[in-house]
Specification:
Layout lengths: L1 H22 L7 H8 L3 H7 L5 H20 L5 H15 L5 H13 L10 H16 L9 H21 L6 H16 L3
């Protein structure tokens, strides 16, 4: 029972933070304000988060987990469709309601002096590396491609595109850009 309450409190804090970050700039929201609106103590807040800066990181990790969950759920798709679905996933995710999550994540990653973490793209790199490996094994993709290089390149392109999308407050046609990435990648990778 206490475990469920802990999970509920953390989710409440994440939801309240997201609301406040929509209303105000990330830098203008305080831990006190989050706690007051959530009706919890600062001790409860710090039980779940190291600081306010931890929230966007955890929100972004939740996005990556959803990406990976979708990838696993589409395991029965033909490989080329699964590859396209993995690349295009962020086109469905990136909406006016999610732009602040991406924006705040990048703000934290660039500006928080106590942040020793590097930009995390392991989940995306793992997914694309796995797709490339299967594609080579099934003789769909060329066998001379460097799986690590192309997997990371695709993941970095997506990460950079998300940064641009956040900088321009969602005013980039992310679907078009991801479709371009897919078409260019598939031309390079196909064993024809």
């Amino acid at each position: 029972m206490a475990n469920k309450d802990t999970t509920d409190t953390k989710q409440l804090l994440l939801n309240i933070s997201m609301e406040l970050f929509q209303e105000k700039d990330f830098d203008d929201v305080s831990v006190d304000e989050i706690c007051k609106k959530a009706g919890v103590t600062k001790g409860s807040f710090y039980h779940h988060f190291d600081s306010k800066y931890d929230i966007p990181i955890q929100q972004y990790r939740a996005i990556q987990n959803e990406f990976y969950k979708d990838y696993e759920q589409n395991a029965d798709l033909p490989l080329v469709q699964r590859f396209e679905r993995a690349i295009m996933w962020y086109a469905d995710y990136c909406t006016k309601d999610t732009v602040n999550i991406i924006t705040n994540y990048h703000k934290v990653m660039m500006n928080y002096t106590k942040n020793t973490m590097l930009r995390k793209i392991e989940i995306e790199t793992k997914v694309f590396g796995e797709i490339l490996n299967i594609g080579i094994e099934q003789k769909i993709f060329r066998d001379d491609i460097n799986i690590h290089f192309y997997g990371e390149m695709i993941a970095r392109f997506i990460s950079s595109l998300l940064l641009d999308w956040a900088i321009f407050k969602g005013n980039i046609n992310i679907k078009r850009e991801l479709a371009y990435l897919y078409r260019t990648s598939i031309i390079i990778l196909l064993d024809t």
